[in-house]
Design brief:
By secondary structure, the protein is mainly alpha-helical. The chain has one domain. The protein is built from four helices and no strands. It is globular, with a radius of gyration of 15 Å.
Amino acid sequence: MKKSELRELVAKWRDLKRKSKNHDHSEEIKMIEHRYYHETGSRLEDELDGKGLHDFYRHTTKLIK
């Protein structure tokens, strides 16, 4: 999958997340999250929230202490 296709997938996911407050789009959101995970090997929510980076730094600080 090209980088532009991944960006398009992320944009669609964000749009559906925003719309899901008023309507049920859970199936479409799950499908996009599964496709992103299959293509990249990481969870979409973690990458956008920055949790993956936080876990990395948290892990390194434990090693430093």
